[in-house]
Amino acid sequence: xxxxxxxxxxxxxxxxxxxxxxxxxxLIAYLSDAARIASEVPGWISASLHxxxxxxxxxxxxxxxxxxxxxxxxDRLRRAGMIDGNKAYGEASPGLYEVVFALEG
Length: 105
Hints:
Structural class: alpha+beta
Strand order of the largest sheet: 2-3-1-4
Strand content: 25-35%
Order of helices and strands: EHEEHHE
Oligomer: single chain
């Protein structure tokens, strides 16, 4: 389960994919496989996939305990060919983030 808490040290990779019309489900299936591979890496916390309601984007929200774990996850996915492979499904805009503010109701 994702942890959204400021100043936790958790690193979140947010990757927004722009997909061609009708391409969301194929990318979601691919990213689900990637998440299963990533989940085997020590320090991996969670992965959540989101699809836009207009059908043009998929967002991958993945968390690791710290920057070293995030790098291990990325290295593992790269070795498995999953990083380069996702280019077949759409254009990726990845980044690593930390939560600096969270407000709950």
